[in-house]
Amino acid sequence: MKVEGEIFNKIIAAIQDIGDIGATMDEISRRVPLERHTLSKYLNQLRADGRISYKQIGRAKLWYVSKAPLQHIFRLSEDEKTYTEKIFSRILSDMPEGILILDFDYNILFMNHYLVALYGNCVGEKFHYAFFGSYNDNDTSGIREVIEGKVEEIETQVEDKEGRIINIKARQVENPDGSFSIIAIIRDVTDRVRNEERIKNLSELHRLLGESVNRSYTIDQLCSTILKNLQDVIGFDMGDILIYDPVEETLSSYSTREGDDEVEDCKRIIAREAIQRKEPFMFSCCSDLNANTNTNTSMDMDELTETMTRMAEEYNLQELHAIPLKTKGEIHGALLIFTRQGKTLSDADRSLLEGISESIAGGIAKIKAEEEWRLKASVIEISSHPIFMTSPGGKFTYVNPAFLKVWGYAEDREVLGRSWSDLWARDDIPALVRERGSWRGSLIAKRRDKSEFTTPLFVSLIIGKKGPLQLVGIANSGIR
Amino acid sequence: MSTHTATVMVVDDEPDVLLSVNQILDANNYRTIKARDGYECLAKLKEEVPDVLLLDIMMPGLTTKELLNEIEKDSRLAGMKIIFLTAIHSLEAEEIGLLNSKRVVDFIEKPFSVRRMLEAVEKAIKLE
Fold it and tell me: How far is the alpha carbon of A396 from chain B, nearest alpha carbon, in Å?
């Protein structure tokens, strides 16, 4: 093997000595003293390795050192290729991944069918222009670092001139003459990356929705957070959540982009229609009002269409989607999503919007319920009547400020957890309430300082999903 | 203490709710009938017609909607009043058509105070 290697090197040196004009068999044999058929065998082995090539001039063959054997294969016509070269070039051409070969000056020497389908035939063009539309070789693909020898191999993901995400894996391939080429494997990973981003954004959206249920979000915070994340997932142009107040019959708006008064009025008209219908509907500027147009419409169809057309023209919109925010039969408002010209929502996006709208409605319902509860709780807090709750067994779980004041305690933690009999003279009341459901009468109460007083008392049992929950009592503030 | 002769049937799949509500109605001088699901309710309605049906929503077996349909078909039950005693929201019940029947006279959401339930039962009986 060592001897063969030395012979190969001598043959290549001999061909290089002759220069760019090419070397005949006789010229080579003068420098490498081998018999003609032995030399021919070595020449063919070197050619099979891609290290040398020849041109047929008449009956003579002129031998050259291959500067770039890889691309040399693709330059040969089918007739000129050996069987191995044919197989190899077909595999590369038809691979389901892009194969790109560049020289040291970014010139594209070869691109296979996969890349031709994406970029057209760009052989002879500069890589950064063909792929990134830039004349500047300061590309972000990292290939420069390979060309400059800073790294042996790179793998990177970049956006091309068409907005596709391409994955590039490139490395140097050394040529027999000491020069090098760059061979790169390129894949269009746009769908995969977009899907990954979508899944990531969806996960984030669901996390935020879950968080909004567990954390004390205001409706304002909930809406702005959801809209922002929804925009990342769907990529709409403008989104609004309009919250309906059934008492005042008003709509308050949370928007990614606020318009002037007229536009905001249009949004309210569309939102009211969605609330009235209790079903989603959409308007496409290319078609007409879609779905559920014949039932439960609250307004004249021409007026609604006119409103939506006005909105579409004002903002150069393609689609308007209106989805009622409904949960447990209650409508809390509407989600409006607008896409700009040229952008339409997929069926998956629409399904997502409908699913998310119920989660948003659930979040809003929870926040409203909490606000309502806090309001009601404040009534109990400011009541002058002592109000308390105990477990069904009679352990105190809540007392209001009036209770603390009348019983002479400073803080509720002094009372919570104590037994019924610590604060009342009769200890059979909890059992009576559990049995009869409620109890009303006068009872002697025991203050912190051991003094006693008599007060009218009403106690009722509260029953929950699983059975008795609490006893709730209200005494009289008038101390006798 | 008032003396009732009215009969109330309580239908709930939660044993503690069923026990507690029946015990309280008994203590307040109502005659009570217990049923743990829709099938048992229908079976017992064939034997006796109560004045008021305290009915849970979302029980295993027969759905509340199916149970209501069966009740609607039975002319013997025309005078029976129904009060829902449930953890679901009234709007949700309305949406699935549970509040359409004229027999349904009240809707009590859990958790509820017993006082509220007793007032509803008394009011339903007076409607007769």
Answer: 18
